[in-house]
Specification:
Four copies of one chain form a homotetramer. In chain A, 28% of the residues lie in helices and 25% in strands. Chain A is an alpha+beta fold and 490 residues long. In chain A, a hairpin with a 2-residue loop joins β10 and β11. In chain A, α10 packs across α11 (310-320). The model of chain A is unreliable at 1-13 and 97-102 (pLDDT under 50). Chains in contact: A-B, A-C, B-D, C-D. At the A-B interface, α2, α3, α4, α8 and α10 of A face α2, α3, α4, α8 and α10 of B.
Chain lengths: 490, 490, 490, 490
């Protein structure tokens, strides 16, 4: 789904897939909500549209705040944070929901909260439930009243109807009915709970902070609060954490071969995070190295498309021996959206954010390294800017394979027909973009860069790479119902 | 003067000198204010606190809007821009004013406007008037009423009292009474006016857009509106521009040897700007090259302090052959200020914005390249983060000489005693920062990097480098009156 | 429950009972939400804290907006009203909810909405459900998730769980489970629905506007939209209205002797409304006449406590022949609340809103006519102001009997022990207030003023007068559970 | 000048003349600005558009705040008032300025402030300077820069250019150059200053509060702060007040026969104020008595047009013996303006604020008492509402003579041709309004009601009644320059 406004910050970054959520929780610290706010700030790249925090305090019970906009603009204020007391809190940042018509309403902003007979619970969900439509119909039929258009709300209603006597077991009940990808952080009055789906599509890590514990989408958010990274929550694992008893682990699901999202390595996660024991920065640099080996080209300058192409460009430059330089300068003062913008602004597009370093580019054969090509719109504009500035040649090197299939596991992708690689061959794309050469890293090359020395195991792939391969590890039931055509079996 | 709040965005960037203003004007285009807004957006790095635009339209006369905050948050809105019609407009972004007690009031935000008997005029000023206090006393004695605490307001009052019959000549009269550094963009009902002081301390460039003309602090702002860079306004030159007659040039001042601010090359200007015929990016990269020659060190990684240290780090890595890498990751979602922040936030400091790429740093001997050291506060924090992450050695390489003297020409510097280099030798600074080595580029090395092959001409320096040398090309009269001690003659 | 802030507008009016809600709905007109906004503006005296509107449009479905503050500040804006299209809409204004801890959250603001398998429905409720706590526990036990702390939300959950196949019948099911006082306006995609409880405690009237229909708490809101008053909805009646078929009436409840709230005549309703075929203004004037007969006193001036005492004062003056005059002047510019007020403001109290007309009062024996005495706080302050201004005597005449019992049917009353008349005799109250005489109208006198020539039928009272008599027509089950002591049987 | 928006609160009240300002100052109390805020709140009826306060504190010097909107919404907040410390403060509320094109800018909001060589001064002005245009041209010619479009700013520039050595004497100098009507409250670092023009057109009173002193447009604002009314400042008097020396009085102007504005008695002042030793309420009641004698009519009901017609209606009813009743009910929740209102709202007009009490009016012969008729627009609408409600006859009785001339002394009046009485005879007006009878009080009757037993002295009128008589006590020089035609000498 394209962003609401054609020339907001996202439009400039618009040729990207969008992670939909970041989640964070902490227990056993003073003023837990402050830590959650910091954690969400560090996870802001996973969702910029809105954020929410729920905390629990023995005296005032559950409290919550949900706001549109950046964490730093809302959840740093003393006056707001004072309304979120207590030693236990969870939070969520989001981009947008599958299913919401038009813009997100504040009621779609997580965490979701439910009052059960044994007490309240709040949940924050990263991922996407692929059978949410069917579950929703069933729940409404039985008398549940939905307050949001979010697929994630099903979980809390399933919990409300569970016959189990305690909340963690109700959550197990609920999640066993749910299909798709989910990393969940939840809380009761005393417990912090974390779960990953059996495939482990979305990340979730555990940290230790003083006598307390933290759960986070990524390790970079542990760093900001000064927590120590303990380990990843494993695919199919559920942890129930209290300040007193520490971490208890259960396995509510039938075991499966994990399929972690490989695009987290390519683009979603922050370069300073550690995933699956690997530095994301180093992986991306290595993708650049692989790319330089797979698709070398004689040129004068390796130039990243800022900022996501930078590590791969550094790797490409290092491997190829071609000088690295900042051919494109990013305006640090771009914000996210323009409310009621002038016609002028609407026509500016990428120039509002990027400017070519003309003196560096002029007369040079330039290799532009970008992380991915989705619709190709931004790539075309950047190519034009580079040529206008007098580049002799423009070569695109892309740090991921062609993105030819939509993601149904918690990532915002255009409809399949909008994906450039769904309708064009590599040569057609090169011609469409109007560049001298265009090369994507191979799927095997990507697997090598993430540490799989032998490349992709095509029988039993080590990652979810559906966006490249069309091989979906969980059938997207709701989408098939709506007419989505799976890749024909070969 | 330290920023108002100790942990806002500026505090994180706090160990920097701050350019106080960016100015922009355009004539001969439809809806000139829209172009000015874009230009100011591209000049936002020169002043983030507030901005203002004045436009003139034959039907509605002069209109103005002044706002706190970023250009993109204010001057992109249709509803505001519609109040600024007409083919002629000027604008200003500012950081803060010498003289305002506490925070800037909206009345201190430029452009300033005055109604004279022959019509109105608006002016926007980049620089600082070193005899403003004396002028102000004299003007008040004669019955002028000041509306702001800005030194720049003197200019408009001097114009109001001039006996000349037209506004450009009144401006000449006024500027001949003024001492210090000034680049001015002004407008009457029909004319766009640009002036630089005889030393040419602050930049000002001329561009052509369609049938119209633009004046800008930097060329990067010409790029954003699609204007062609024509030439710099020369030191001591005044241009009077109309859509009909084009550019007329006069020389109101006694000629002097130009002394352009060398720190514009080091830090203030955007890397994609061209100054004095030189690419700022290339100059900075060259500083890194010089630095690698002057102060080599055996190490494993060259790492920029983002983002201002990046070009010099690239140059240093290239010259030294040591690999370049992103050891410090910047959070893209940092804003400028935290209103009523929590205690937690107040104690976070630099960690809110920067995180160490631990996997890259660990065990390595790291060269950190930064543009300057002012008070040394941020440098210390960054060093601690790097060491906490397991670096084996930390070597600072600074892309400017020691900053030992305050600037009185339009840059916000701490009082002299707060400048680390004013009270410590290089070795004392190294020890204070707690790093394995600390080296600044030499003054001659810096001059070589900006293209002066023979280095600095100590008899007649080619640039204003008072912040390094203590040699002030214009006597800071007001400051001396307030007790500032000039460097003793040698 | 006392107002949140001790010196807001309500504090000045603080010695009043507060109606908790006004409801309004319309079907069969273009842009129904605009009519609802006007209707709610006319009903603003019934609830000033917040308001909400839900509309339905065949193209965009259900839309809603809920806002804190006055109707005129929110629901008059083009930009908001454009989001509420369609020929069918309902709305609600509210004061506060029994049950919400601290301040009302936006999620407590009605109308409430539920999506059922046969489509959505929205409801707006005026009154109070006396068994809401028990219902809520039962619904949660079965898996319903409540989103608000409002008793009214029970209705929509009961509807969600009904086995009936259409929404009006589900509403019948739901309301048969509910005890207490309720006037309800509801809507489906095509139907406007109105219901009154069997006792008809709260008002609800039907109006005709063009080809459409309106439901309103009071007739004054029909006047503002230019609708013709048709009739009252009868106690125990449910009307289902469509633009096509007009009004269909059903009787879902077992018939009972109606008990309309007599305090609506005394204070809640607007003087220009017609209730039970009687003008509220005329009733109040007649109360003044009765009071002058029951409790005459020799004096120089009849002075209303503005504004609610005015009609009774006019009646009192007319009957007694004593001149009528404005001895107390109201500041028209008082708003509702002071956010973070100064100490000074906090100590001002009633003087911020009322000032004595000293020249009129001085030396006079003054009869002050007020509608009611609740806690007596404002009455004391007014007495002091009058005496400070030099009145010779002060006589209070109150247009209602002593308020000795709380209301549990949708009116915000202090706890019983805070009611002056619950703990003091009339003479004790006189002495407490420090006035020369204090007289309340008798219960029989009040019944005569509302047209019951023979006064109150003590066997089978014609009205609900529980706040005066302690005789509650519906047992307040939740409150008894919480410890409320009913009046001992005599 | 009509209000900016055709259907705001003022439009509903739109057929009124508008006082343009209220002024207040206090010295010798702790936190003087708080007292000024309260005083301005009590004077809000004199100007609702904006307000400003300047205070002085020995430590922080002069501080000021200017805001659009009601005093109670701005100047009651702790956070704002803390920025206005000190024992001396003045303030101003305003409606709008002659001269400002379109809406008032914040820079037009008083008090105005000037820094002179001997220190700063702030002034607040109620009235209008009739030679302001000429003064402004002269001052600009000499180099003064005006910051506002307000006529009042001339005073501060004239002060800046005075050769006197202290501020009170500079103010004398300035005011001797000024023509027209002015009551001024001003302050230096230590002195509170009050001045009335020689004719004493606008009011100004002196009060005592503890050891301090207050100056106010009206006595009702002394009441709210608990100050004792001392006396009026006399026409042509200047008082200079310090906490230490108390009140010193000087007479800077040539004595003249005073001409206080008689419309202050009719409409502008609050009924609880005392002017010239007379109660405004009592004067208005007496106007009603005179009117009943001058223009009796056989009818069933005397009904005020709320709220300004109420005292005269009470007097009329008392004198005529016809019952008094509230035939028109005012909605207490009307605000001042509707931002971007819907079409629906735009067409509502007076019905948004007033509703007819149909049950009272029906079948009756109604006397409507209003304070004045300006353009007649509201009168027509009210007449229609009354007839629609079934009145048998409608008789207008107006508590002032026909308003046939604009005011140039600080009151906002329509251009002469918009005044109904400027173009129509009384009978033509009656026919235009479509009522059964229409009578205005005679000029002599009005003078009798204000206590001049022999009526108006046509040789030497005791009041300024230019709006009725066309006899202007000060020649409106600027307006004559702009083409205004004075009444021909008879």
């Amino acid at each position: 789904m394209p962003p609401a406004h054609p020339f907001d910050f996202d439009a400039v970054d618009g040729d990207k897939l969008k992670e939909e959520c970041g989640i964070f929780g902490v227990v056993g610290v003073t003023d837990a909500a402050n830590f959650v706010a910091l954690g969400l700030h560090a996870l802001q790249h996973r969702g910029q549209e809105a954020g929410g925090i729920v905390s629990h305090d023995p005296e005032t019970g559950f409290n919550s705040a949900r706001r549109f906009g950046y964490v730093r603009d809302n959840f740093t204020k003393q006056s707001l944070m004072e309304t979120l007391p207590g030693p236990l809190a969870i939070g969520h940042v989001r981009y947008s929901t599958a299913g919401s018509k038009g813009q997100t309403a504040i009621r779609d902003v997580q965490p979701f909260f439910g009052e059960f007979s044994m007490g309240g619970a709040a949940i924050a969900h990263n991922g996407n439930i692929t059978n949410a439509d069917a579950l929703r119909r069933e729940l409404i039929e039985r008398g549940s009243i939905f307050q949001s258009s979010s697929d994630s709300e099903c979980i809390i209603h399933l919990m409300a109807r569970s016959l189990q006597r305690n909340i963690p077991e109700r959550m197990e009940d609920a999640l066993r009915r749910v299909e798709g990808a989910f990393s969940v952080v939840a809380m009761t009055r005393t417990k912090l709970i974390g779960v990953r789906d059996p495939l482990g599509v979305r990340p979730l890590v555990l940290g230790k902070i003083g006598d307390g514990w933290a759960l986070s989408s990524e390790t970079c958010a542990l760093d900001i609060i000064g927590a120590e990274f303990v380990r990843e929550i494993e695919p199919g694992e559920m942890v129930v954490i209290t300040a007193e008893k520490g971490v208890e682990s259960v396995r509510p699901f039938r075991p499966q071969q994990p399929r972690f999202c490989i695009f987290e390595h390519v683009y979603f996660s922050r370069p300073d995070s550690i995933i699956g024991g690997r530095s994301v920065y180093e992986t991306r640099r290595q993708i650049g190295v692989e790319l330089a080996r797979e698709a070398p080209v004689d040129a004068d300058l390796v130039c990243p498309v800022p900022d996501s192409g930078t590590p791969a460009a550094i790797g490409f430059a290092h491997e190829s021996g071609i000088p690295y330089g900042m051919g494109i300068i990013r305006n640090q003062y771009m914000g996210r959206t323009f409310i009621e913008p002038t016609e002028q602004i609407r026509n500016m597009g990428v120039r509002l954010k990027l400017n070519v370093n003309r003196a560096l580019i002029q007369g040079k054969r330039v290799i532009l390294v970008d992380d991915s090509v989705v619709r190709g719109t931004t790539s075309r504009k950047i190519k034009e800017m580079i040529l206008d500035a007098g580049a002799a040649e423009v070569h695109f090197r892309i740090a991921s394979p062609p993105t030819a299939w939509p993601c149904f596991y918690g990532v915002d992708t255009p409809q399949r027909e909008k994906l450039l690689a769904a309708t064009m061959s590599e040569e057609e794309m090169r011609s469409h973009l109007g560049v001298d050469s265009l090369k994507f890293i191979s799927l095997d090359g990507l697997y090598r860069a993430v540490g799989e020395a032998k490349g992709r195991d095509s029988k039993c792939p080590q990652y979810c790479d559906a966006c490249f391969s069309g091989e979906y590890p969980v059938e997207p039931a709701d989408m098939i119902q709506k007419g989505f055509q799976m890749k024909a079996a070969e």
